[in-house]
Design a protein that fits this description.
Elements: E1 3-9, H1 20-27, E2 34-39, H2 51-59, E3 65-68, H3 71-74, H4 78-90, E4 94-97, E5 102-103, H5 107-140, H6 150-177, H7 179-183, H8 188-197, H9 204-210
Parallel strand pairs: 1-2, 1-3, 3-4
Antiparallel strand pairs: 4-5
Length: 213
């Protein structure tokens, strides 16, 4: 039996621009063997069309477990979620979703998942409607929106610079912790394991960024 973690973020350089927090969350509850992380992948893309998710499903065997930190990190909507669950069940693979403490290998678990995924889909649509209504009402009152506004442009630039600096500092810390392994030409897997033992787990994407790959 192998335990795989799957993580996803939409943008690589926002406040949650790496999947490391998801990995830390998962590892606080389970000992995982491998991680597949989709970065810069929108949640609107179906699970099995995402690059890293495709790699994950290609290596799954009977008895394996796939762990996702949050429901919305795994699936685009109710249909995508349930179709993936059924696909995994046919291959005797268990899916665990930590934020709802759910094991969907049982009938009651699948029923609860259906309800919760439906609620999540409904809420996303309601949020989109409220945002659209807010913009419409604002424009009627003479307000302007958009990235081309100078104030918005400056604000985005400042936040991007800060995030970039934080990322560079973090990459420097990772390289420092791996200095001996880098000198020994260690594999990425060895480096990831070493960082986990230090209590600083990172995704493979973050490691490669730190190493300039």
């Amino acid at each position: 039996m192998t335990i795989y973690a799957y993580t996803r973020v939409s943008k690589a350089e926002n406040e949650i621009g790496t999947t490391d927090n998801q990995i830390i969350n998962i590892e606080s509850q389970l000992k995982i063997d491998n991680v597949y992380s989709d970065v810069n992948i929108s949640g609107s893309m179906p699970f099995q069309k995402r690059p890293e998710a495709q790699k994950l499903v290609s290596v799954l065997k009977s008895g394996d477990i796939v762990v996702v930190a949050k429901l919305d990190r795994g699936f685009r909507d109710t249909a995508d979620c349930l179709n993936t669950v059924k696909w995994l069940q046919k291959r005797n693979v268990t899916l665990r979703i930590l934020d709802i403490a759910l094991d969907v290998s049982t009938p009651i678990g699948e029923m609860i998942l259906t309800i919760m995924a439906s609620v999540a889909t409904f809420e996303r649509k309601r949020i989109a409607e409220r945002i659209k209504d807010g913009f419409t009402n604002g424009r009627k009152q003479g307000k302007s929106y958009g990235y081309k506004l100078e104030a918005v442009h400056q604000s985005v630039a400042i936040r991007s610079f800060k995030r970039r600096q934080e990322a560079l500092e973090r990459y420097e810390m990772i390289r420092t912790n791996l200095s001996e392994l880098i000198a020994q030409n260690a594999t990425e897997a060895q480096m990831l394991i070493h960082l986990r033992t230090l209590g600083q787990p990172v995704s493979r994407t973050t490691l490669r960024n730190a190493l300039g790959k």
